[in-house]
Amino acid sequence: MAQYLIFLTISTSIFALFGLGLNLQWGFTGLINFGHVAFMTLGAYTTVLLTLKGVPLVLSAIIGAVVAALLGLAIGFSTLRLREDYLGIVTIGVGELIRLVVNNQDLPVGNEWKSGAFGVQSYPIPLATLVPNLFIKLLLITLLTLLALITLWQLWRWIGVSRVLSSTTNSQKKVGSKQEFISHLVIGVFLALLTVAIYISGVIGLYDYNATAGLMLVSLIVLAFVFWRLEILVRSPWGRVLKAIREDEEIPKALGKNVFWYKLQSLMLGGAIAGIAGAFIAWQLSAIYPNNFEPIETFTAWIIVILGGSGSNLGTILGAVLYFMYYEGTRNLDKIISLDSDRLSALRIMIIGLILMVLMIWRPQGILGKKEELTLGK
Question: What topology does CATH give the domain 2-131+209-362?
């Protein structure tokens, strides 16, 4: 059970990272990106091919993120001066183009060239060869403990801020604010219990050391760092300009802001974050193939962002948690409903589509999105 929860934690953290990149582009800047998987593809392949050439893992992942950001630069220069729908068309085309190129071209795997259709295997993975003594095990567990405590503290602060706002709101909005506080309390308790469960599983995995537990720790640390920096960025003057561009880009233009440059920065930074997610998915899978990066991965990110709340980084993480809970919870649906694998897969997609439709009616801004901020209530 602990190993299963560790695997789910890695998957959730990877797609939370992937979703955070899309949320920066769409949720905060309003850029339509239907080919987000292209950044993940470049990040994954750049990382593993460089490690097979002897480049250190961390440096390979950083270069993979830079390459993904350069793709954002290329897409941005060619489309951002055009209408928004052109960006959506170009990105979905670029995503498929990169996958098909990787599938049909020979790749420099180690000291030889191999067809991309055969994938890439047997590349180094973080902490896979580590044989820790007791001191190293305790050090890793300490890092996980600090991460868990910081998470619980931040959740406590988040609930506390919501409580203060609900108690100081004027009488006209008091009922809605109290309802929001209750929903935040429920979500906070749920995430806190999940944090404790992950922590216990992680301690077991790290003490009886296995590489999967090590990868989980690294992925959670990177997710926490990216989330922390994004929260600082979106609350800064830079982030406020992005929100202004999302609402009406003519206003920041009138104030002398270089809208094109801000959009380009958002596209590149979001692409770099997706490139890091690509490195982690390559490490988790241990072997990557072009079919691992199909367009459905982009729309998984869209589901996560919409479900959790566009324009909310915490909402994106919550959306990733809920998506993988649903995804794993319906994996054995064939034991209840007698269907073959293809029809079962279609049914699972139909159900998540129905959930999103109901959500759009009940709460169009997503679970943690702000209706007034996204101008959905105007």
Answer: ABC transporter involved in vitamin B12 uptake, BtuC (1.10.3470)
